[in-house]
Amino acid sequence: MSDYRLAFKPAIGLYGQHDPSAVLFDGGTPVFGIEEERLTREKHATDTFPTNAIEACLEYRDLEFDDIETILLPYDPRLRSRIRSHYLTDALRAPSLTRKLSALENTIVTEAQSRLAPTKQIERRLAEIDTPVPPIELRSHHRCHAASAFHPSGFDEALVVTIDAKGEYDSTVVWRGDETGLTRVHTYDHPNSLGLFFAVITEYLGYRMFNGEGKVMGLAPYGEENPEIERTLRDLIDVGPDYDVTDVTKRWGTGHGVELLEEAFDRPRKESPEDFDQWEKDLAYTAQKLTEEIVLDIVQAYSGVIESGNVALAGGVALNCKLNKRVREETVVEDTFVQPVAHDAGLALGAGWIGQDPASVEPLSTVYFGPEYDREQIESRLQTNKIAYAEPDDLEQYVAERIANGALVGWFQGRMELGPRALGARSILADPRTAASRDRVNRFVKHREEWRPFAPSMLEEAAEEYLVDGQPAPFMIDAFDVRPEKQDDLEAVVHPADGSTRPQTVREDQHPRYYRLLSAFENITGVPVLLNTSFNDHGEPIVNTPTEAVKDFYGMGLDLLVLGDYVLEKPTQWIDSADRVDQPATDSAVTDTASSGDGTMGSRPDEHLVQ
User: Fold this and answer.
1) In angstroms, rounded to a whole number, what is the distance separating the alpha carbons of residues 533 and 424?
2) Helix, strand, coil: what percent of the chain each, to 5?
3) Which spans does this entry mark as compositional bias, Polar residues (predicted)?
4) Helices 194-204 and 255-265, interaxial angle, to 10°?
5) Closest Cα partner for 167 from 104, 50, 35, 74?
């Protein structure tokens, strides 16, 4: 008999505000997982209960709540009382008497709910899905982050560091992971929050908290050492293993911190993230530098709690791949594992693993936990919407030829990824060899800032040839320097300012069709690498369904869409570069399987597509 457990991260009330998700476990193994944003189509799905994600988990195995042994929540509101005084002080800092009273009332009500009825709100929402509601177990937020990093790492022991904005009362926690599980070594209480500190910098530079931190990381290499900026920030915070950023982060949210920076720098916050000047680039550089310095000091200070040099990381700050690179390169570190779903959506994974013997958890080799659509489902949607399509005799060879000839390709294959990175299941692909390729994807496909770099997918066996310290990196969560002699081959996926990249390495057993595509591209060009970015337009979640992929195909500057075995092409291909890339003839390469009498490619407006 199967042992089903359902873990999910709500984003309502006492349980945080962003990135809800759900994961179904069978006998201790995650078998299905999805983020709510992929189903609601609202990025980060803020202030949302993951009803759709929960229902998708149940539907995957045709389950009802009667079949679920336990529901696991990666948040324990009862622990909030440890920093009760912070919430009361925060309320008293409200600017007017009316707002003070309102904030105090909200704080008192929240405290009562946390202590007396921590799961009541969740039980009500679950009862709207099905009854009876299974027993609910609460797991602490940062312990779930820690389990998500250590249990699937493959390490017998490790120093585990979890870093985010806040979970209950924690902001950063150092753990010892071994065969007995996780032992808390040191805690940095909220509001002493590295995640919130970086969020303040993010908002000050014109981006949004919990959404733009990765962009600030990408902007940082364009900056330079700026003694004045660094001196000002160091006056506001203390670095080292006993870091303290509380002066910047003492109020929840970023408003107080941004105002403090405006006063300290005598410079208003940036209203929109466009046309960064050198000072703003230098600020991003300095914030990244200080964040790295603090985390490296923590790793060095606590490396003695284990005999090995293994380090595991999770929490939203662990999405910072430049930081992860610095940790990997640290002299006291022998090996690292970073949970690829490091942010709050990955809490559901940790909640499911906490109660298990770490040695019983298989090392994580995939995050393809989401939905997939078979040949018949894809074909049915295309025919219903009267969209012409074709089926190449050799799909991978045909697509590789098109990419080598300049085509920008939407690639929709197999089970969707869990987490923020597209890893060859819901990807946009392009030729990695020229900067023009990068610029076209930024301008015509992703509709985003042209300075932002892209990441590559490469055959795992090519990692040492192309990367300094090259090694398997299947999750696009770590950065590497590209070997100088190879940078000209990878202009589209090397950061222009520092020569680094954030690769995904691919083995055949991880994604056979994607591996074959990379191999075919290597046979044509000699380069076993593709530009790979997530299949979504700017500000949208990654596509989930074939219909969403088709909508984005016609709304973006893509030339080709590959849905499983089928290929969609636009009637005319225009390449915005000095050299015109002619569209190769398709008659000999593909067999047309669509009825062309009822419609042509591009003839159906997006809003009329049948789901």
Assistant:
1) 9
2) 40, 20, 40
3) 585-598
4) 60
5) 74
For residue 29, the tally of other CB atoms under 10 A from its CB is 14
Exposed/middle/buried for 167, CB within 10 Å: 0-12, 13-18, 19+? buried
Between CA 525 and CA 431 the distance in angstroms is 10
pLDDT at 577 over 60: no
Distance of alpha carbon 135 from alpha carbon 144, whole angstroms? 18
Nearest to 482 by CA among 472, 474, 495: 495
Q: Is the pLDDT of residue 32 over 60?
A: yes
Sheet holding 566-569, edge to edge: 504-506, 455-459, 529-534, 426-430, 409-412, 560-563, 566-569, 390-392, 590-592
Backbone angles phi, psi at 208, to 5 degrees: -105, 140
What per-residue confidence (pLDDT) applies to 102?
66
Q: How far is Cα of residue 339 from the mean position of the Cα atoms in its chain?
A: 10
Residue 508 has pLDDT above 90, yes or no: yes
566-569 and 560-563 beta bridge pairing: antiparallel
Q: Give the span between the Cα atoms of 604 and 611, in whole angstroms.
A: 13
How far is the C-alpha of 230 from the C-alpha of 530, rounded, in Å? 38
pLDDT band per the 50, 70, 90 thresholds, residue 596: very low
What ranges in 303-346 are assigned the alpha helix state H? 321-329
The separation between the first and the last C-alpha atoms of the chain, rounded to the nearest angstrom, is 35
Sequence-distant (≥ 6) Cβ neighbours of residue 461 within 8 angstroms: 528
Cα separation, 442 vs 557, in Å, equals 10
Measured CA distances, 389 to 23, 409, 561, 599, 603 (Å): 34, 14, 9, 11, 13
Q: Where are the alpha helices (DSSP H) in 313-414?
A: 321-329, 347-353, 375-384, 395-404
Q: How confident is the model at residue 88 (pLDDT cuts 50, 70, 90)?
A: low
CA neighbor of 510 nearest in space, from 565, 455, 472:
472
Residue 457: C-alpha distances to residues 231, 318, 444 (Å)? 39, 20, 21
Rg for the chain (alpha carbons), in Å? 24
pLDDT at position 94: 64
Higher pLDDT, 273 or 186: 186
What pLDDT is attached to residue 91?
59
Sorted by where each starts, the structural domains of the chain and their CATH numbers stand as 4-141 (3.30.420.40), 149-346 (3.30.420.40), 375-608 (3.90.870.20)
Return all residues near 501 (Cβ < 8 A) that are at least 6 apart: 453, 455, 456, 467, 479, 480, 482, 490, 493, 494, 495
Residue 21: how many CB atoms within 10 A of its CB? 32
* Whether 534 contacts 540, CB under 8 Å: no
Which residue(s) pair with 409 in the sheet? 429, 560
Spatial separation of the C-alpha atoms in residues 113 and 259, rounded to whole Å: 32
State the alpha helices, DSSP H only, in 27-140.
Answer: 37-40, 51-60, 84-92, 97-116, 120-127
CB 510 within 8 A of CB 366: yes
Q: Which two tokens stand for residue 531?
A: 């530009």
